[in-house]
Amino acid sequence: MGREVGSSLFCFDRQLTLVSYILKRKKCVLLLSTMHHDDAANEDQERKPDIVLFHNEMKSGVDTVDHLVRVYTCKRRTQRWPMVLWFNTLDYAVLAACVI
């Protein structure tokens, strides 16, 4: 029942590629990419599609940014959602300004 582990399904549109990759039994990874336009898969790493490998390489950068925003934050405790949104935006803007 279902697909085998390591199998991939691709869906292509003009500028988009959607991949469905079975990582484990009952564990499906869905990724949408505007950078990849083919169904290339790496035979060395459990037939993982290039989109999944690229995502795995780049997610450490996201983890680093999230860590820096948590450490150097300007947030205040508030129950008002517009203020929460403002403080989150301000945190990322401050980090971007420090990088530049």
TrEMBL record:
Residues 4-94 form the PiggyBac transposable element-derived protein domain. Pfam families: DDE_Tnp_1_7. InterPro entries: PGBD. It comes from the Eukaryota. This is PiggyBac transposable element-derived protein domain-containing protein. It comes from Trichinella patagoniensis.
